[in-house]
Amino acid sequence: MKSIISLLTILLLLITGCTEPNVPLKHRLPSSCTIYDMKQARCIDDRELVKRLAPYRVVFVGDHHDQTDLHKKLAKYITGLDRSGRHVSLANEWFTPEDNSLLKQYAKGSFKGDFPQAVEWKKKAGYYSFDSYALMYNAIRKAHGGLYGINLSRESRKRISDANCSVMSKEEKDFYDSLDLNITAHRQMLSPFFAHCHSLRKGEDASLCSERMYRVQVAWDSYMAKESAVLSNRIVHHRSDILIVFAGAMHLSHGLGINARFARLRHEPFVTIKPVPTGTDTADVGEADFLLFYAPTQKS
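^ that's the sequence the OP posted. Answer follows.
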């Protein structure tokens, strides 16, 4: 009888253990890190990061919007890559491909006038400070690099949100039809952010609203991946060339956003750098290849 009870107890423990929710594996992050290499599970310095990027010609870098210390660090890495002999180009979420003519002038230092006004910075970036991002743009200019836009226009995002195919151009309709909404891990990662709909439309329930928001997110990621692949094909030809794709960190997290869709379009090895505020002590395995620590801006 005791043997049977023991066996039943073991079986019960096994069954209940299997029903526990999945807990992601985590890295414990040292408090003194500047950069954390997630593959080697150790801290590295700025010089080693530049060295570690040497084999790659495409690097995805996440943004935490309006964080001056982060942008200052990235400007320093652009300068470091330039000094190491790399020709650096920066593809930025804040701009669209239609801005590339203005961006080319700005990068070459030939633009005359109010650049933020000309590029409609307030419309594109809202209250985020242009001066903070200009730290990187000016580093590109000093490095004689390229500056490009990769974002989907607000108008296109609205048409995709509305699923209004009747007003889409053929190119927009083809893009809309190509959207892959079936990456389960991506959907699960974003589902908490789309669980609450703040602006239900007439005749729309929470489920339809969540689906609409997710469709726009996928379109956003897919378009930036497509434009990054186009740029990679057009401007990355030599070992010295390097394209930095700079977009909001959520678009790159766990390799499930822009970077996952880029990999379908280009057979070009890449790495992903994700920003984390100083003091962060844990990170999920697989969040990125490198974590870059920065001092967060204090909100007044």
